[in-house]
Amino acid sequence: MMPGVVSFDLDETLWDFAPMMDGSLAATVEAVARRRPELAGVTVEELHRVRGEVGAECEGTYEALRLESFRRVLAARGVDDPALPRWMVDTWMAARVDSVAVHADVEPALDELEARGYLLGAITNGNFPLDRLPLARRMAFVVHAEHAGGAKPGAEPFAMAMGLSGAHPSRWVHVGDSIESDVLGAQAFGLRAVWINRRGEPLPEGVTPEAELPSLQGLADVVDRLLGAA
Ligand SMILES: [Mg+2]
User: How far does residue 165's CA lie from ligand 1's centre (Å)?
Assistant: First the structure.
């Protein structure tokens, strides 16, 4: 029989998003100020604000939008250095890997699932460079929605994961924090959904994940139960 598949959302499921994002932007600001002292006054808040403006006005990948936002921040200070925005994007992406704090319950849960023979994968709407983290080696597939032609809760990223893994929906559990993207999206694709509720939010009315956990602790037993292995 095909091994069961367990797919994971990334942001807010394996780590907290805001500290990773703010930490990586702060590191980028520091690095660029060392290169161009006139940029010492740039703040993380400003980067968020300008990125928000760019997102409202432009279309593009997350990386393209970030590049444009850095370009605008530099232009506002009269810094004319065409290569610098790209350098900032590269610095920021590398800093994301340094800034991420993977929750302590993640590695043990992945160990346990692997030991029980499950195929593991990741499906994210974001652009975190997972391939630069050691835990990526455990993942049989990694789907970034912007390469799948659509984002969760739509079917596209799940369909791409299915193509990459050969998984059948009946032998597949998806794990994530977002009711909309992860629970409803996975269920609409015919998967079982485990809602990771790290902040103890109330379950919205009318939503029925197959299971709910406050962390990944105990996930392997839940997956066994959902896929009929225990
Ligand atoms: Mg998430």
Answer: 21
The environment of the single-atom ion ligand 1, i.e. residues with CB closer than 5 A, is 9, 11-12, 177-178
Token code pair at residue 60: 């593009």
> Model pTM?
0.93
| Alpha carbon of 145 to ligand 1 centroid (Å) | 12
Q: How far is the CA of 9 from the centre of ligand 1 (A)?
A: 5
Q: Residue 1 C-alpha to ligand 1 middle, in angstroms?
A: 30
Distance set, CA 117 to CA 5, 192, 223 (Å): 9, 18, 11
**CA of residue 123 to ligand 1 center, whole Å:** 10
pLDDT per 10-residue tile (average), the chain, 230 residues: 90 97 97 94 96 96 96 94 96 96 98 97 96 95 96 98 94 98 98 98 97 98 90
Selection from 183, 184, 213 nearest residue 200 by Cα: 213
- Domain at 5-16+101-226, CATH class: alpha beta
CATH code at 17-99: 1.20.120
- Closest C-alpha to 9, from 202, 166, 219: 219
pLDDT at 3: 81
The domains of the chain are located at: 5-16+101-226, 17-99
User: From the CA of 37, how far away is ligand 1's center (Å)?
Assistant: 36
